[in-house]
Amino acid sequence: MRIGLFATCLGDTLFPEAVKSTAVLLARLGHDVVFPPGQTCCGQMHVNTGYQREPVPLVRNFAEQFGDASIDAVVMPSGSCAGSVRHQHEIVAARYGDAALRAGVATVKAKTYELSELLVDVLDVTEVGAYFPHRVTYHPTCHSLRMLRVGDKPLRLLRAVEGIDLVELPEADACCGFGGTFAVKNADTSTAMLQDKMRNVTATKAQVCTAGDSSCLMHIGGGLSRIRSGTRTLHLAQILGSTRTAPYALTEAVR
Fold first, then answer.
1. What pLDDT was estimated at residue 252?
2. Nearest to residue 206, comparing CAs of 184, 193, 224?
3. What is the full DSSP assignment across 32-60?
4. What are the residue boundaries of the Cysteine-rich domain, all occurrences included (predicted)?
């Protein structure tokens, strides 16, 4: 399968290893991964902040970059960006776009997936040859859980990882409190939600807290480092990309 990889803004600027791991994993599974060089932001942050007309050029560019018929599927290591492409792009195109944009958005929407969706639903795999001999807990991010409804797909992938000690996260479906600009506009509420999430993460005594969104991991990881919890955050793609022959070198988190 020829798969188009969307890096996302956070992946491009702050968490490139999650993007690289996605490409390495899919190539290891025998797929042709392509990276359209003209890709930009998907426009999610504009729409989430109430600016629906402004991201029209971004939505149009996404449809043009990934609408190539030779690309069988589009994947991104982000539930929130996948949710934006599958839901928000259609709203933006319907309200402020032309017929060509609406058609392009519909084409790309039909083949866009978050990483765990692509692996389980499209490629029909749960065992990807991963090796990660560490204690791990999983945080289901809000967009993946509530917008994409990925369900237990990430957990099914994690359970199949060789050597992993996967522990259940208490109150797993509770939001971590990030929510993009929500964390800035409602800092006190965001911090309180983060404290609840950190308490539950540390209760698992996990070495690693993983998720499918770098944004949530950035928020949780920042909190965990400030309290010197000893638990670090790592994207799901990086765990699935780790193998016996090329294991992920897990460094100790600050205690």
1. 67
2. 224
3. EEE--TT----SHHHHHTT--STTHHHHH
4. 4-85, 136-220
